[in-house]
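Suppose a classmate hands you a notebook page containing two proteins, each written out with its sequence and a corresponding row of structure tokens. How would you begin to make sense of it? This section walks through that situation. The first entry is reproduced here exactly as it would appear on such a page.
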Amino acid sequence: MKKARNKNQDPKKRRLLSEKEEEKILKKARFPQFGFRLYAVAALFAGIALLAICYGNSFTWVEQKRIIKKGKEGDVMHIYTNLNKKELRFLHQKAERLSKRATRGREYTLLTERMLATVLDSAHAGVGIAAPQVGIGKQVIAVQRFDKEGHPFEFYINPTIEYYSPEEKWGWEGCLSVPGRRDTVLRSTHVVVSYRDRNSWKLLRDTVEGYTAVIFQHEVDHLNGKLYID
């Protein structure tokens, strides 16, 4: 049953009121939708920020593939050199700091094992190696400690040289990433190095002298995108 029409009501006015009501209804429908979209966008950015906090400075998918899928424990890694333009561009990039979370995973353990195998390989034996030299853009280096008994190789996470002595000395250097070449470089005779302890994640410092100090300077340069020939 239809509602009876009021004969005294102007049809034009009735139609105008109907249009206004329709417009109000449409506005009410639009704003909640717009608000929902804003909420969704905000939630998306919040999620991205949370992921960055939790997983930031971890190994990328490409790095994980390079570490795990292209070899196993003890396998030598491909060394990036200045002879390849693409690899040279990578070597000139600054490495990212590594998160505590990333050092707890299988990737870090396997990376250090393979970096050690690479620097000890008879084909290109060296006294130090940095992660960027094997295509991993993270701040990890291995240094042979000639100042310690047995001259062991030790790994350092996020190393920074906090102090360079004013006393400097020229010395011959070579590099796994610059094959077939040697040159003289001016280096500080002793430095103070800070780094993260993998177990406690405390910031540690070490004063290093002599040839070992030269190795530290050479490897930290790699993390800053610098080759000794630059």
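The notebook's second entry, a different protein, reads as follows.
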Amino acid sequence: MKQLKKYHVPFILLCYLMNAGLLTAQLNGFLPVLSSSGTINSNGTYYQDYIIPSSMNGKILHMTLTGADGGRVRSSEAQKWNDAGQGATVELEATIGSAANQIKPGATVRFIVGLKGVDRT
């Protein structure tokens, strides 16, 4: 397994806390199962929880998390726009299992998906 980079730690910690039952929530009485592929988009308001299915035990979970663009700001020159920050991309690989430092089958993964930054004049 690859060495985790320092920016993976908050996500891993969030997964750990949710797996430990400290940060769980139910949406409409059920939690959707994380699919083998797909995109999770912002719903504009709420976080989205997904369950790691037990069928993934012993497999590698790979996620590519991409942040939104930061928007633009108008400079002192009348018609010139300056770009704000670009959305960062973080990749995560974690083993699903019951050993230490693994994400347990049945764990909840929470996504808090934001939106693109607002352009300012």
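A careful reader of the second entry would note: The longest helix spans residues 9-19.
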